[in-house]
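Hi team,

Below is the intake form for ABC transporter integral membrane protein from Natrinema gari JCM 14663. Please confirm the fields before the structure is written into the shared record.

FORM ID: S-0412
PROTEIN: ABC transporter integral membrane protein
ORGANISM: Natrinema gari JCM 14663
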Amino acid sequence: MTEVTTMRNSLHRARAALEQRPLAAAVGGVAAVLVVLWATPASWQTSTLRFAVPIALAAIGGIFAEKSGVINIGIEGLLIVSAFSAIVVVDWLGDGGATAGVPNLWWGMLIGVLVSVLFALLFAIVCLEFEADQIIAGLAVWLISLGLAPFASRILFDSPNTANITRFENVTVPVLSELPVVGYLLFDTEPQVYIMLAGAVAGWYLLSRTTFGRWVVASGENPKALDTAGVDVRKVRYAAVLLSGVFAGLGGAGFGLGTLGTFAGTGDTVINGRGFIAIATYLLANYHPIGALLGSFLFAGLNSMQSGLQAAGYAIPTELIRTIPHMSVIVVLVLVGRTRLPDAAGDHYESGED
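The structure came back. Fields below:
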């Protein structure tokens, strides 16, 4: 009974913590939104939303994995394989065509998510069944993806870069798209932006308003109490890691099909560290999905500024301009301070252990 009481108290504290929006995430996120909406050119505003897609969705996925007790720093790799596989599928099925009545772009999105989930499953097996170090396993996922995608591209396209495909077209919502500022931003945009916004709300609801979400939180805070209550900790962690694969897959495939229309495998690939920025984003948001969405606008806005400065031809070294998004991550984390990790994050757990 003592363990059950502990479990109940742990769940109540976890729910209360999730329902309180972290001050740093709220202030920083709202400030970022205001900057994006009113202090930048329209082209920067729209590009900020598109650049936020992989960061926000990968961050939400990372929240589920880490809140369950599994540190998934391989999110960067999941973005890479999902973006690459989505482009390949569309090119193979036929750019601009449809299969079984469904546009090939959506088949690409589906396969991109499935490939991401497959890599997440392999990561989960290595960590949960073989009890590998989660940080090393996550790095392995990233490095394998970083090498595999360009290698496969050379086989398929004789180049580390894939062919160009037709991107998603804007989806316009009548009447609402005519609203000032938010109209063309939120109601006349690509499908991946709608997916990002819906994903943030769904992630928040699932984590803070459902029994599964409370299991996820308890798995990362007090797995023994969850086990005593009769819930399989391993299954909860598997589900959370696979869910991180779904969100990262949506982010990577959406970025490739909606924003880029191609995959470049040179250097750090077109993903270019966005998975690692996603990790910083959910730490900034203190594991709050809505906070992660707002935080992604901050880093995506700086990415847009970088692109805008390069396009404008300012007399600033290109190498210095490219560091802006990454340097901002360090600055923000220093200013925000330390985020409390779940108590059991990174720890292995066997059912019935003391």
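SUMMARY LINE: Residues 10-23 have pLDDT under 50 and may be disordered.

Thanks, M.
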